[in-house]
Amino acid sequence: MKKIPGQELIKEDDFRFKDCLTSFCSRVFSWLYVSPERPYRIHFEFSRNYQHLFDWEQPNFFDAGVRNAIINFILERQHFLEGEETADNLGIEKLLEDGVYQSAYPLHEDTDRDFLLQEWASMRKWIHLQPLDSIKEYFGAKVALYFAWLGFYTHMLIPLSVLGLLCFIYGFVTWNSDPISRQICNDNQTTLMCPQCDRNCDYWLLETTCLSSKLNYLIDNNITVVFATIMALWAVIYLELWKRYSATLVHRWGLTTFSQHVEHPRPQYLSKLQRHKDITERWKKSNNILEPDVPFWRIKFLPSFTSYSIMVLFICVSLIAIFSMIVYRMAQKASHSILGNENSMTYKIMVLPLTAGIIDLIVISLLDYVYTTLAVTLTNLEYCRTQTEYDESLTIKNYIFQFVNYYSSLFYIAFLKGKFVGYPAKYNRILGFRQEECNPGGCLMELCLQLAIIMIGKQAVNAFVEMFIPYVMRCIRKLITRMGMSKVDSEEKLISCNQWTEDYHLVPSYTNSLFSEYLEMVLQFGFVTLFGLALPLAPLFALVNNVLEVRLDAIKMLKLARRPVAQRASNIGVWYNMMAIVTRIAVASSAMIIAFSTNLIPKLVYTTATKDASLEGYLNFTLAYFNTEDFQVQPVLRGSNFENVTTCRYTEFRNPPWDEHPYKRPTYYWQILTGRLAFIVIFQNVVGMIQGIIAWAIADEPSKLRKRIKREGFLLREHIIEYEKKTAAEKAAARRAIDEAQYEDEKQSNTMDYYGNNSKESTTQTQTVQRDYGDNDATVVYRNEQRTTPL
């Protein structure tokens, strides 16, 4: 808007130490900024009725993003034949399907793009802040909000990465102080463990797990609970601070009052309604004034039910794929392996989990592609009125798919593997195979390996796909065009160097083109919060990836992809709610991992029961005895290194064979189980309560911003009221002048008629025409007006 009197007073605030600190830091780190600060302006929804209040004469009053959005809106809804508005003659999409046009897209602008290429899409600028205002003007608010969120998330990962690195360093520093790994490494071949499969698996010595027990200590030590608690609280703080930061951005861009409810219906939605004649007929009877009402049970229910039923079916397919990986690992242990000596602990602890993790990553990547295509198909079946509803429905489906796809194997290792194995006299079997066992140090090390493979592998694959494939496709399309293999309908080769032909070779952009970018980052957020406890360096890996991701996405959008149609938005949509849900799940996940996959609770029970704070006897406490004559299936051994074995050990809490109740659960097992369940309840409730307090204490908007919005709203209302008063007074004065002139003309005309024709009726008219003007709230009131003859 134009500058309003008193506008300069809005930004004046009382002295606050926080503002001084912020100003000082801004000056110190001013070299990180790549774009100058924009002058303070007040924004208001544009209306021609208040055109005088807007600074509409400036060249960029409507920026390029708004202009191409308006053009796209018209093109999508333009009918070919007047009076025959049907689905067969609607919009540019129909022309593209019929081959009338090959493509339709906004053009890149060299001036603005050159600035962004230099200051944003450059790896040399990785440490600099993003020019969000320039991104918003070029790509629109929706794209700018994504990059603002990605940048904010990346900055918030810095303290968590430092904390995770310190936890990892602490594990290295105290490497030799762990009594469990020290006892395993100094076992001196005295502890003989039971075979881990029914055939071709020999007895093995506990000391062969020396290295794995030391590595396990890096992630299962005294500060594991502290790290898990801080990470759960960090997630809530991150979400709350993002709301504050995004509120400031949205206000600066004039979108605070923007609402998704004012969106127009999608052309595809209106086209689908054309198939239902009763709806279109009722709509036409109302002269298209009211939007057509679509009954849910008669029209919407069946497509929605079909869509979500197929989604559940494919979720089951994903679970079956994960189950097949479990069977693969069990089968590998039950048969000869082609990847080395299956009796070696290196194979059992490292090679087998690595190969299973790599195969799991390949299966997940294939299902990822299938799910992405399927989600779009299912969402197209539904009756989504607006583009926001369509995007949210597509997002929910795809995220549920990917949640099951990427996290199922990790949940299995964290919560199920090694928990229901049984014991040598009675193993629990699946399809005839013994279930997988955890090594004496627990399954946390395998969870760490699996998380590292899937998280790092997924990010590497996505970076390759996002950058390499668009680059190759652009080169191929240019080569085909220059060789004359691709021609337009007029048989003319596309060899010109115009901007539209240059952009034609780029990767097409779609309305939901940011979907895959959001999905990748939200899945990464889940890896960090749900399972980051098992890999303290996960935040650091995410930080390094995101620093590169910001610049790679910028390069892709400016160099490799066509310019998307700008869209307005006031938030990141349903993605925020998904992260909030993951944050709540992460508390329960961390509690269960600590309770069942670490040695915290067994150590506490052992220390309490034996008063042995040094934990010298803890290892023996966790291993049960077994009489080899009691095997359910006698193991088939070939060339065994051990002879006349009568007793072996296995990782369980059970009575020895010479006890009155052999192989039954002892009392301390139930104490440990009670302690684990109690820890889950206490941890989840305490951390959840603290999360709630943090969410309540941190306001959604800064108090300074709320005050500014209130001041702007008051000043704007007063300015508009004064403008309305002034306009109404001018109109009243003009109308009064016209009426007085008409009155004088009438008076002269009636006087002449009176003297000339002596008409009594005219005399009465002259005496009874009375007008009274008065201003009431800038509204002109007319009353006591009588006429006896037409004038």
From TrEMBL:
Residue ranges of every copy of the Anoctamin transmembrane domain listed in the record: 135-712
Keywords, sorted A to Z: Cell membrane, Glycoprotein, Membrane, Transmembrane, Transmembrane helix
Ranges where the Anoctamin dimerisation domain occurs: 10-132
A single GO cellular-component term on record: plasma membrane
Region Disordered, residue ranges: 739-778
Annotated TM spans: 146-173, 223-242, 305-328, 349-371, 522-548, 569-596, 677-699
Family matches, as InterPro entries: Anoct_dimer (IPR032394), Anoctamin (IPR007632), Anoctamin_TM (IPR049452)
Compartment annotation: Cell membrane; Membrane
Residue spans of biased composition, Polar residues class: 749-770
Ranges of Basic and acidic residues composition bias in the record: 739-748
GO MF assignments: chloride channel activity; protein dimerization activity
Membrane topology recorded in Swiss-Prot or TrEMBL: Multi-pass membrane protein
One Pfam match: Anoct_dimer
The organism's place on the tree of life at top rank: Eukaryota
Family: Belongs to the anoctamin family.
PANTHER family: ANOCTAMIN (PTHR12308)
This protein's name: Anoctamin
Organism: Ceratitis capitata
Gene designation: ANO1
